[in-house]
Amino acid sequence: MNRKPQIFRLESEGISAEISDFGAAVTRLRVGEGTLRDVALGFDDVNEYIESGSYCGATIGRVANRIGGARFSLGGREYKLPANDGDNCNHGGTEGFDRKFFTADCRGDIIELTYKSADGEMGFPGNLMLTVRYKISPRRLDITYTAVCDKDTLWAPTCHLYFNLDGAEKGNCLGNMLKINAQKYTPLKQGMIPSGEILPVAGTPFDFTSFHALGERIGEKCAQLELAGGYDHNFCLSGEHAATAYGTESGIKLDLYTDLPGMQVYTGNFLRGNSRFGALAPRSGFALEPQFFPNAVNTKNFVVPVLKAGEQKSHYISYIFGSI
Fold first, then answer.
1. Measured CA distances, 191 to 195, 263, 274 (Å)
2. Strand residues in 96-227 grouped as ranges (E)
3. Measured between alpha carbons, how far is 117 from 114 in angstroms, rounded to an integer?
4. Positions marked active-site
5. Is the dihedral of CA 69, 162, 316, 225 positive or negative?
6. pLDDT (mean) for 110-124
7. DSSP 140-163
């Protein structure tokens, strides 16, 4: 890449975030009392980031997660998308928002990044204007996504941060503890597309209604875990306080809030690339991705993330840090 990304730093008590105009991505996140600790995976070299295929810290769109068959119908018309995940379109296609330069406006504790996605970009209809707003405050990072489009389209954003709350340099996140505000999840079929079922988590390795280490049950004989190579599943959230996680060594705690209906939990089963912490091994970090349910546009009874022409919509994700 010839153009060098700009990095902007936001700082407040107990937290420091670095945001790139490339992918509107969080490239570094440090939290703690006194000496701050890196808790999110990141790359110093944008080419290494691209090569990794990790989406590390990036803004995702137009639609987060997978669209089965890389196609959908809207308003009586079929739209074809790039297939970049087997037969599926994943995270907006081969050149999604994670690969785009945004226009940045940094003002004290806020940075706003804007991008115009042209009609037909990656196959999606309409000229869509996206604003990603990061705001920092003591031990807290808030993200607001706002979009408007001149045609009916799909829009379902997320942030693809990978965490290791014991320290991003640790190399394995499976000791991190997680609790999810979800009684149900959407199981997968071959191709990593939801089957369309919404099943209870009770009695399964997907029951995080109380705290469990990410690695506690990841190796159990379970068809869903074997299919995904670990956790890579959507949870149906029961409220805006989506999850709590903490590092058992560091004592750093994360509470995640969102107005989005689902959250993908991904244990970095296929992570690779050379990050600022060295070579990334699988399960070096875990992602909590608030989202609409995967393949919602092609799945009966899932809420379809339609953005109507001329309508302005916003969604938020908030990360609040503390200690156990």
1. 10, 19, 27
2. 103-107, 110-117, 128-137, 140-149, 153-154, 158-159, 162-163, 177-180, 182-186, 188-189, 193-194, 199-200, 212-213
3. 10
4. 160, 289
5. positive
6. 98
7. EEEEEEEEEESS-EE-B-EE--EE
Report residue 257's pLDDT band, with 50, 70 and 90 as the boundaries.
very high
Which residues does residue 25 pair with via DSSP β-bridges, in sequence order?
20
Rounded to an integer, what distance in angstroms lies between the CA atom of residue 21 and that of residue 243? 28
CA neighbor of 30 nearest in space, from 6, 48, 14 = 14
- Range 228-235 average pLDDT: 98
pLDDT band at 2 (very low <50, low <70, confident <90, very high): confident
| Mean pLDDT in residue range 273-284 | 94
DSSP state of 33: S
The CB density around residue 191, as the number of other CB atoms within 10 Å, is: 14
- CA atoms of 129 and 259, how far apart (whole Å): 20
Q: Which two tokens stand for residue 106?
A: 């940094």
* Residue found by looking up tokens 């989406």 in the block: 55
